[in-house]
Amino acid sequence: MVMRIAFGFLSGLVFGLGLVLSGMSDPAKVLNFLDLAGTWDPSLAFVMGGATLTAFIGFRLVWRRTTPAFDCTFDVPTNTRIDRPLILGAVLFGTGWGIGGFCPGPAWTALPLLAPGTLAFLPAMLIGLWIGNHGKHLQIFAPKGATQ
Amino acid sequence: MEMELRTAFTPWASLFGGSLIGLSAVMVMGLFGRIAGISGITQGFLGTVLPTPGAPRDRDWRLAFLLGLLAAPLAIMLGGGTISQSVPANLPGMVIAGLLVGLGTSLGSGCTSGHGVCGLARLSRRSFAAVLTFMSAGFVTVFVLRHVLRGAW
């Protein structure tokens, strides 16, 4: 239990250091990455590239083990269906990302810096997550013939 | 939004920071066997304070992970580093942005980390579709706000 918490904290710390050092936690950089027609800053492509490549190699190394260190199974999503909630959710998320320049991780790491924009964004994000979680179980999002 | 300040292109710092993000995703997979998706981890946190359907049950490491995220900027400042950041100051805009990000990542089952980093690294079809969609929505949104509406809102 203590080890799970210690290593959970360490993982979050490494993630957060990565967000801050890469510039991903600065909304100005994110919005400039998304501004192809204006003050474009391609840095974020390097963040995503470095992160994805490291995870691509690292996942394959850790999957050689039969179990993770502190759990019984590797719990990896098996759903391959590209459905309505996935696409609608991604459209809403991308729109909010383009307005505020924050996605969930950077919003957390920015919180201790207490910028007014962050203090407005984060509680709204939590409310949105909670509402979305309830809405996800509504009938309108159930794809035809799909089982949940 | 209203700010349109230039930011420096930082390929090496971004590549290095990105590798740390990837390393963290590998740690979470190797230690806990889970996807390091911040929206899912945040739902684990919400599940401890509110009834949240489908929130993950292994909350111990998720809460510790969030504390680690919060500790990161403090650690950098304690180490004598400075953090440059400019957050949009349009507060109603930031509330709308937060709501959309929360709604979207819960409906779409993931964000930049879960679908972006982890999903692409797993070569998941769903995640490729999600990343293409949210990136496109982000490009279109910034284009409309900065070049069509020109800060008129």
TrEMBL record, chain A:
Keywords (A to Z) from UniProt: Membrane, Transmembrane, Transmembrane helix
Pfam families for the chain: DUF6691
Transmembrane residue ranges: 43-63, 84-102, 108-131
Name assigned to this protein: Sulphur transport domain-containing protein
UniProtKB/TrEMBL annotation, chain B:
Any GO CC annotation of this UniProt entry: plasma membrane
Residues spanning the membrane: 12-32, 63-83, 89-107, 128-149
Membrane topology: Multi-pass membrane protein
Keyword Membrane: yes
Annotated compartments: Cell inner membrane
InterPro entries: Sulf_transp_TsuA/YedE (IPR007272)
Signal peptide (UniProt feature, chain positions): none
Keyword Cell membrane: yes
Name the UniProt record assigns to this protein: Uncharacterized protein
Family: Belongs to the TsuA/YedE (TC 9.B.102) family.
Keywords: Cell inner membrane, Cell membrane, Membrane, Transmembrane, Transmembrane helix, Transport
